[in-house]
């Protein structure tokens, strides 16, 4: 059971998520951490405690879309900041492995299985800043663990309403790039918003990502076909393109390329395969609807 942080000691951290919204994300967490004891040395920490801290940090970052090299580097920096003499970590998209060795040669190895992954750059930024503070010895072990547990459990990101609107705006943007008129841009907004709503509902009922990608693409295609049937002057293709844009795995592709360049071939290939399967699911959803409607 995760222990609740000492809010009397970590008072500004209670409002961490609100402070980290928008452009002031990093500055917000920096301000929130300044009340912690600066310059305190972190000595005498057991291997079990060090491993518990770094494995949780690795799990949080991997779950929220960090690339493999960033996860491994963050875990290594945090372990050394706590007094570890040597750190060996191995990260793949579905698991985190770490071995920590102290100055006496004693070592401890553990792993953490990661089942569900999403994209949440806010949490990654928070863990990164926490790691820097710990490495600079402006944060002691207990405060770091409490903060990390809070970051792992806090409700982060936007609610359904703003997410639906944001998806619609993204759809409009790409429709405009296709020389869309006002009507096509409006229906692209509708298609993208519907796709985001359907993806949210299906993801809560069914955890497999490819399912809601496939169904979301079908919804976008159905919207485009229906609109074109009712108003022939509206371009079906522009509406469909705007609708499926929120489903495009852009971050997954970027992370896959980053991992391959960094030499993490296993992680890079697996992330690339995941992105390819997502693209195939989206394409299949659109193709099936178009084939039926012809």
UniProtKB/TrEMBL annotation:
Keywords: Cell membrane, Membrane, Transmembrane, Transmembrane helix. Its main location: membrane. One of its GO terms (molecular function) is transmembrane transporter activity. The keyword Repressor does not apply. Residues 53-292 form the Threonine/serine exporter-like N-terminal domain. The chain crosses the membrane at residues 214-232, 238-261, 273-292. It is a multi-pass membrane protein. GO terms for biological process: succinate transport. Pfam families: ThrE. GO terms for cellular component: plasma membrane. It is found in: Cell membrane. The keyword Aminoacyl-tRNA synthetase does not apply. InterPro entries: ThrE-like_N, ThrE_Dicarb/AminoAcid_Exp. Belongs to the ThrE exporter (TC 2.A.79) family. This is Threonine/serine exporter-like N-terminal domain-containing protein. It comes from Thermosinus carboxydivorans Nor1.
């Amino acid at each position: 059971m995760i222990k609740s942080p000492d809010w009397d000691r970590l008072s500004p951290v209670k409002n961490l998520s609100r402070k980290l919204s928008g452009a002031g994300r990093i500055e917000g967490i920096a301000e929130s951490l300044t009340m912690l004891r600066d310059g305190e040395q972190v000595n005498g920490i057991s291997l079990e405690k060090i491993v518990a801290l770094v494995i949780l940090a690795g799990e949080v970052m991997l779950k929220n879309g960090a690339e493999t090299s960033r996860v491994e580097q963050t875990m290594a920096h945090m372990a050394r900041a706590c007094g570890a003499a040597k750190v060996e970590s191995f990260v793949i998209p579905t698991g985190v492995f770490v071995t920590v060795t102290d100055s006496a040669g004693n070592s401890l190895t553990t792993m953490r299985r990661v089942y569900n992954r999403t994209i949440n750059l806010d949490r990654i930024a928070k863990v990164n800043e926490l790691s820097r503070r710990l490495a600079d010895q402006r944060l002691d072990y207990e405060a770091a663990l409490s903060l990390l547990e809070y970051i792992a459990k806090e409700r982060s990101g936007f609610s359904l309403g703003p997410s639906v609107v944001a998806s619609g705006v993204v759809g409009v943007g790409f429709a405009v790039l296709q020389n869309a008129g006002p009507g096509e841009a409006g229906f692209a907004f509708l298609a993208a918003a519907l796709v985001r709503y359907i993806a949210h509902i299906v993801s809560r009922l069914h955890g497999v990502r490819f399912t809601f990608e496939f169904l979301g693409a079908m919804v976008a295609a159905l919207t485009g076909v229906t609109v074109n049937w009712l108003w022939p002057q509206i371009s079906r293709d522009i509406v469909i393109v705007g609708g499926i844009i929120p489903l495009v795995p852009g971050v997954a592709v970027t992370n896959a390329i980053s991992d391959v360049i960094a030499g993490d071939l296993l992680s890079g290939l697996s992330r690339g395969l995941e992105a390819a399967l997502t693209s195939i699911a989206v394409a299949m959803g659109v193709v099936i609807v178009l084939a039926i409607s012809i």
